[in-house]
Amino acid sequence: DLQIGFYNTSCPTAESLVQQAVAAAFANNSGIAAGLIRLHFHDCFVRGCDASVLLDSTANNTAEKDAPPNNPSLRGFEVIAAAKSAVEAACPKTVSCADIVAFAARDSATLAGNISYQVPSGRRDGNVSLASEANANIPSPLFNATQLINSFAGKNLTTDEMVTLSGAHSIGVAHCSSFLNRIYNFSNTSDVDPTLSSAYADLLKNKCPSNSTRFTPITVSLDIITPTVLDNRYYTGVELTLGLLTSDQALVTEANLSAAVQDNANNSATWASKFAQAMVKMGLIEVLTGTQGEIRTNCSVVNSAS
């Protein structure tokens, strides 16, 4: 089992060294907070929170980071690498890359939203990373309510936790390709998704060419109200048909989800507390502990057998 303060004796400075690396990156670019929270999410949904998302592809294997849900949009790798090298200098071969990712996500929530919580640690690093598993397990921005509920349920997260964690879209950006379906050729009867604010759709069309791909370097803030603050305004936007992705709008297509959205929109402190708890629970998905896996020395490659 994971425990809070797992490194208190073996590496007492571990969490503060990670926090310093994240804070330095955040001071340079506040958008990195969204990237680091997403990195933890995409790690945990594929083989559990085992840092498999950090492994590089090899000559005979395409790793998770090179799968379409992660490439080229996933970011924060260099922050994890900087944190890891600081931690290795202080305590060699002690702190896992998986724990560093979990700590960095928490530090990001604190910096972007003043949401602080303790992270149980003791995760071990996995040795397998497959692009096919990222494709199969990471929920798509095109998912509807049922697909989202099922995706999260498959990772032992409740429907309410799914709605709560969607609030991470209160910060960060999306590439045009992830919402193009809503602004061009939506259906036979409508060019634009009728559940998207038409004024907002016009603005988005102005920004995103219809031939955008995931490699087109144009991005839009996920939360138009407070784009750089991790808060509950995301839910207000979703209620006002300003949710950017199909998967954001999906949260108001079913009564029980809508009720949760309204609850979160109306209670910022309650949402923040639920978000912290849901992040902790997400960080427990299928973790490796004890002698399982390894403590990777370099987060992007498995340790050599030597």
From TrEMBL:
In the record's cofactor note, how is the cofactor described as bound? Binds 2 calcium ions per subunit.
- Active site (record annotation): 42
User: Subcellular location, in the record's words?
Assistant: Secreted
What InterPro entries does the record point to? Haem_peroxidase, Haem_peroxidase_sf, Peroxidase_pln, Peroxidases_AS, Peroxidases_heam-ligand_BS, Secretory_peroxidase
Pfam families the record matches: peroxidase
Enzymatic class: oxidoreductase
Biological role stated in the UniProt entry: Removal of H(2)O(2), oxidation of toxic reductants, biosynthesis and degradation of lignin, suberization, auxin catabolism, response to environmental stresses such as wounding, pathogen attack and oxidative stress.
Please state what the protein is called.
Peroxidase
- Organism (species): Elaeis guineensis var. tenera
